[in-house]
UniProtKB/TrEMBL annotation:
The organism's taxonomic lineage, starting at the top: Bacteria, Bacillati, Bacillota, Bacilli, Bacillales
FMN hydroxy acid dehydrogenase domain: residues covered: 1-365
Organism the protein comes from: Halolactibacillus alkaliphilus
Protein name, entry field: L-lactate oxidase
Positions of the catalytic residues: 261
Any GO molecular function: FMN binding
Annotated InterPro entries: Aldolase_TIM, Alpha-hydoxy_acid_DH_FMN, FMN-dep_DH, FMN_HAD, FMN_hydac_DH_AS
Residues the record lists as binding glyoxylate: 24, 165, 261, 264
Keywords of this entry: Flavoprotein, FMN, Oxidoreductase
Record carries keyword Oxidoreductase: yes
Enzyme class: oxidoreductase
Residues noted as binding FMN in the record, renumbered to the chain: 77-79, 106, 128, 130, 156, 237, 259, 292-296, 315-316
The keyword Flavoprotein is annotated on this UniProt entry: yes
Protein EC: 1.1.3.15
Amino acid sequence: MSRKTGVDWEKKAKETLSANAFGYLSGGSGSEVSLSYNIKQFDRYRLIPRVLREVSLTDTTTHLFGSSIQAPYLLAPIGFHTIVHEAGELASARAADAAGVPFIQSTVSSYSIEEVSEVMAVADHYFQLYWPSDDDVRESFVRRAEAAGVKGLVITVDTPVLGRREIDLSHNYFPMDEGAGMANFLADPVFQARYLSPTMDSAEVKQKIQSILFNPSLTFKKVQQLIKSTSLPVIIKGVLHPDDAKRCQDIGAKGIIVSNHGARQLDSAIEPLEVLSAIREKVGNDFPLILDGGIRRGADIIKSLILGADAVLVGRPYIYGLTGGESGVMDVLSTLKEDLEINLKLLGATSILDCHHDHLKRLER
Ligand code: HOC
């Protein structure tokens, strides 16, 4: 999409970042079939406008988890922002704050929960949790998130192990090699006491983090225990099956992110839009669903909302915008908002509540 500033941020990211960093951000797992279908999923639907409506004023605001947000999208949790720009998550969070949309901070961010929390004045700050295999570190992360005043916890459940990302394997690349993504661990008192020693170098620290980062033993039961033990609302990210969605709802999750992790985990994982309606049907109308994957334009957002989402995540577009720092992310977010507003008017809608099934047709071919 051509940006308000005229900058094509993906192109700029490709030109300015190292091949390793751009490969890490842009790549998917395995065959990358899901990567291409996450974009194509929206092309299976066409919008049918209604005409001669009064659309001089459009309103993109919506409500999510008790907050009013300026547009129906949140900044997806993406790790390691300092491989893109030295201001990293601080710049992305500030841009989200200026746009009035939530920022979901990754566990593997280059600034800590506390540091990001400090720069967010207006918009909601969520913390994404990769559930460490060390329960005491996990507990400490949750308590720190509570103390920092985050709005909610986003628990990612599609990563019992890391997906097989051939581009990174071919570069032998992992962003922590650049010192990125360690801040939450380095700042954690439990992690410090249990895993760090004064003589350790960065490679050893990285190895310690990696040794506990993922947890292939995570189950619904453990997530339910966490839900009961925290004051924060828990949103579960990485669900693609309606029965799993229902189970998340039954154990007390406050919402779900329907996601194939930007096509970076299970090779050939189904595209989220394909399962969204069935998940909506299973969990009922009053349960927040957020669609993640392939959102590039206002029309993608409209299609997602019609098919059952309350909001969507924006991922790669903003991380490419971060090559321009805070103002680059702001450019991406304001362009997306403008595109959404224009297309709402052209659809004959004055707000996102006006987008209905009779505006949408799924193509048969
Ligand atoms: C071993 C750490 O969600 C991604 C992110 C971060 C994964 C953490 C990798 O790359 O999909």
